[in-house]
Amino acid sequence: xxxxxxxxxxxxxxxxxxxxxxxxANLCLIVxxxxxxxxxxxxxxxxxxxxxxxxxxxxxxxxxIYFYAPGHNLTYALTLISRIYAFALSxxxxxxxxxxxxxxxSLEQNAHLPSKFAYGSLAAFNLLPKxxxxxxxxxxxxxxxxxxxxxxxxxxxxxxxISAMTWADSLSQGMASHGYREEKSRSVIxxxxxxxxxxxxxxSILLLFQPILFIFHI
Length: 218
Known about the structure:
There is one protein chain. With 218 residues, this protein is mainly α. Helix content is 75%, strand content 0%. It has 9 helices and no strands. Helix 2 (23-39) runs parallel beside helix 5 and helix 6 runs antiparallel to helix 7 (115-144). The protein is flat. The mean pLDDT is 83.
């Protein structure tokens, strides 16, 4: 499916299950996301990671709602924790099945995202590994001087911000040297089209989900 339509569909489905508490709809979204993840041959370590990380939040919500909230409603507690897993697994499927470059270019071409936001997003995605390495380098440099910079240390983030300001200037110069101008239109090398198949798949999933959401309840 076209990345822009896939993102729109994911947003619509998650907004619906947020507004309307429905355990069956949440479970359908979880099962569908798991099936798609398996079809896309996701690494089992990543799959375990996506299922274990939300577990602490789910346990906290379940104990709070079931043991301490008035009424001790088991169905409502299960609905809330299934909603957390629906968010996590559907987001995991989108993240693992969609390339950042394709998504941004699709948003620029199909959703008419301004080019400055598109290229800025691509720059941010590509800088993430460099930011990680820079933070790691800053912490190691601090340890060599006998200074431990923890995750919440303000000195760590101050030094990282200084490095980011340097990168911002280099990035702007690099984009200018490659002919980027904010006010000028950009040529398209690879067109990302929205086909009839994409629209058919989009509306089919959306329409099939509505009876589950509004009719079937526990």
